[in-house]
Design brief:
homodimer, Rossmann fold, 6-stranded mixed β-sheet, 6-stranded parallel β-sheet, 334 residues, 434 Repressor (Amino-terminal Domain), DNA-binding
Chain lengths: 334, 334
DNA sequence: CTGAAAGCGCTTACAG
DNA sequence: CTGAAAGCGCTTACAG
């Protein structure tokens, strides 16, 4: 059973496909189609359940009404929550989302951009990998809206939405210092992106500003691709061999691994040993004791992203680029 | 800067677009294009970075190579993990995923199917809502591959992949009974789907089989749309007003709410009070004490789904429907 | 060994 | 007030 086409509707209504098309696209009045014809055609459309073929429409108009979402890993709760919020907002404006995960691999990210390009997505929301600058620049040159989020690529002149990680980890570290902590560790990842670098810089600056000496061996750099067991082993080693009295984790999954490490060690979080996580995770609040964390306001981030996208999509002229920085909040839970 | 078309390539190569098309689609040999021409055209394609317009290709061939994924909520970790696994597997076969969340609303689900239909997705992976039978039947009638997962709609003759929830919650309840529990509560949701009904039936049957009396007031039915604070209040009420010594939660988010309730009450999980969750969640293992749970094997489920999809997509004839039931496992953690 | 032409289902400038 | 026709970028049956 082949689906109906505009031709079938035109035939049934005894009008041309031009007329049907105008009515479908709300241009009936503008094109001064008579009310009688509009009524008749609309009745047939409703009764037959005809839905225009968007693929044909896309080929003709050049718009697909699809937004490409490229993230590190859609199963990471930070990204899946953002994805959900973006989906909701985009949906209301008639846009659908096609997603894919880069796993932080530059080759995969490049391939994804190419695939999305050949599918003619209208706009891109990308949590980029370093090394993707050139590919994104090509999109920008072709005047396709691009919003970077979570991670900025400073060399690129395009839109960006993200949190102020420097400030947030500065504050988190400072809160440790105010509690009298002296040996504050940072567990971070080796992903080479500005966002992660900022978290380290904020930590370091805070320590130096408070005249504590910066101890290089208290910074643990976990390779991104490393499996969790190895990560837990490394964290246990860090905490066993040193007199660390506080740990800041630079991502939510590292904090989760850290909590598992503590559990294995039988080490308690108390007045002698403090922990702060990054991003939120249900496990943080539920943990005994609850874990303080640096929270990125997901709703605000998603809102900013979709606003930028829609502004670009509805404007013929190229809009000025915006770099939107949203305050992450330190949520103290003990 | 307009992207290159097949016409541009043909022009540059001094051949017809037919020839270029054959080469692009690997039909060069079959169509006996000379090696010299193949070489020349391929060189131009590589150098120019030409990528065929998939929208045009889709309009012509009728295939989009896009699979529609319709779930309850993409930000729920059960679904986002499945989404990630499916994405990986589909990607390797050249398929992309377009997703959307139904929020368990039948109208939204129907709308999504319509939107995906007009975008001509090649196949559907649906975690359905009751009431969607007719719309899905239309897809089946049109010979479009449909795989239901997580929830079956028994009236529909189509493919399904899911866990044996009856068996799993029977076992979980039985494990409580073997621990000597007498007043076992079930916290479940009011979503009217077989999957949830099975969890209740397994619980009830297990209780009756072990000659414990079934107490209706120990089953708490949480409305799906209810906000979490209200849910926590209800769980606290259940645990305060009764002598419940064990609780089985029918979903992961209900278990999380339950753990929050316990934390608020200051009630400990110990030899006098046991808890089992559903699906997994990082918070379960990390919790003090760790929370036992019924785990659905996500990898197996995703694998089964994608296998069914690909089999359907690559077969011209309609394949026999399969209902694949995968064993959920009770993971005891204390 | 290769190409001209039809057609997928739409939109829209143009004509009347 | 309405329609015939061109064209979006491909694929493929057919012809030579």
């Amino acid at each position: 059973m082949k689906p109906l086409s505009i031709k079938d509707i035109a035939l049934k209504a005894g009008v041309s496909i031009t007329t049907v098309s105008f009515i479908l696209n709300g241009k009936a009045k503008e094109k001064s189609i008579s009310d009688a014809v509009i009524k008749k055609v609309q009745k047939i459309i409703t009764e037959s359940g005809y839905k225009p073929n968007q693929v044909a429409r896309s080929l003709r108009t050049g718009n697909t009404n699809i937004i490409g979402l490229i993230v590190e890993d859609i199963s990471n709760s930070f990204f899946s929550r953002i994805a959900r919020l973006i989906e909701d907002k985009a949906y209301k404006k008639g846009y659908k989302i096609i997603y894919s995960s880069t796993e932080n691999k530059i080759e995969k990210a490049q391939e994804l951009i190419n695939i999305f390009k050949s599918r003619k997505v209208d706009a891109y929301i990308i949590s980029p990998v370093k090394g993707l600058e050139e590919d994104i620049q090509v999109l920008i040159d072709e005047n396709i809206p691009v919003i970077l989020f979570d991670r900025n690529l400073p060399e690129l002149k395009t839109n960006y939405v993200g949190a102020n990680h420097f400030e947030a980890s500065y504050q988190a570290t400072e809160s440790f210092i105010k509690q009298g902590k002296k040996n504050i560790a940072l567990v971070t990842t080796d992903i080479d992106v500005q966002q992660i670098a900022e978290r380290f810089e904020g930590y370091k600056k805070s320590i130096l500003d408070h005249t504590i000496s910066y101890q290089k061996d208290l910074v643990l750099n976990i390779p991104f691709k490393q499996n969790e067991d190895e990560t837990i082993t490394q964290i246990i080693a860090l905490l066993t061999n040193s007199n660390v009295d506080a740990v800041l984790f630079a991502t939510n999954y590292l904090a989760i691994s850290g909590l598992k490490a503590l559990k294995q060690m039988g080490k308690k979080i108390d007045s002698n040993f403090a922990v702060i996580g990054y991003d939120d995770h249900e496990a943080f609040e539920l943990h005994t004791p609850s874990i303080s964390t640096i929270q990125q306001p997901l709703e605000e981030i998603a809102e900013a992203i979709i606003k930028l996208i829609l502004a670009q999509l509805s404007s013929k002229a190229k809009l000025p680029d915006q770099k939107i920085v949203i305050s992450a909040k330190l949520i103290l839970r003990n």
